[in-house]
Amino acid sequence: MKFLVFLGTVRDSTPPKPARLGARVAAAILECFANRYGEHEVELVDALDYPLEPVFKPHFAYAKGRAPSGLDELAHKIEAADGFIMISPEYNHSMSPALANLLNHFGSSLFSYKPSAIATYSAGQWGGMRAAVGMRTYLAELGCLPVSAMVHVPKAQEVFTPDGAPQDGEDKEAWFHYFARTLSQLVWWAEATQVQRTKADPHKLVGDFKTAPSQRNAP
C-alpha cells in the first residue's frame, strides 16, 4: 500500500527557535514507519515545497491539463494513496494554516474512503493536542477519517535532533512503540478500506460534490 505523510509547516525562520521543528518529528515517524511497516510505501509531502498563489484556486477548478504541474502531480499521489499521516504544529489552539491551505486545494473525493492519522507537536508541554482536536473534525469532513490513536510530541526540540534521531537520554524504541500504536491502526484500516474499495466503488454509492451545492443539499 501507499501512504503519504503531510508535513504541515512552512515556518523556516527564527525566532522562535529551532526552525522547522516539525521536520524532526516527520523524520522520526518516517523512520518508524519504514522500520515497522517496510512492506508498504511511504512518501513525505512537505508543504514548504508547494509555494501556492496568493489568490486561492483549487486544483479541481482548473480546466483539464491547465493546473500547475505541482498540484497536478500531488493530486495523482493523493488519489493513489491508501492512507495519510497528517503532521501539524499548533497555532492558536488550531492546526497549521499552511497544512489546511495545501489540503484545501484538493477535493475530498481524492481523500475520501481512506484513513488518516494525526500527529502533532510543540515546543511546549502540550504537544499540539489542542490542534489535534480540531483536526479530527477537519479530516472527517475531508473524508479521510482519523484513527482513534494519535501522536503528540511535547518539547520536540528536546526529544529529537534535526535529523529525527533521539536526543541523548531519549529512548528510541519507546518512541517507536508509541508511534506504532497510531500507525498500526492506520495500516489496519488502510488494508480494510483497500479491500472494500475493490468490492464496491464508494464514489458510485455516494456521488461526489464537485460542481454545485445541489449535489449534496437536502430537497
Descriptive report:
The chain has 219 residues and is α/β, with parallel strands linked by helices. Helix content is 41%, strand content 12%. The chain has one domain (2-215): Rossmann fold. It has eight helices and five strands; from the N terminus they run E-H-E-H-E-H-H-E-H-E-H-H-H. Helix 1 packs across helix 7 (172-199).
Strand order, biggest sheet?
A: 2-1-3-4-5
Order of helices and strands: EHEHEHHEHEHHH
How many distinct helices? Answer: 8
Gross morphology is: globular
List keywords for this structure.
Rossmann fold, 12% strand, alpha/beta, 219 residues, 5-stranded parallel beta sheet, globular, 5 strands, single chain
Short description:
The protein has 219 residues and is α/β, with parallel strands linked by helices. The chain has helices at 21-36, 69-80, 97-103, 108-111, 129-142, 156-159, 172-199, 202-205, and strands at residues 2-7, 41-46, 83-88, 116-121, 151-153.
Strand-helix topology:
Elements: E1 2-7, H1 21-36, E2 41-46, H2 69-80, E3 83-88, H3 97-103, H4 108-111, E4 116-121, H5 129-142, E5 151-153, H6 156-159, H7 172-199, H8 202-205
Parallel strand pairs: 1-2, 1-3, 3-4, 4-5
Helix pairs in contact: 1-7
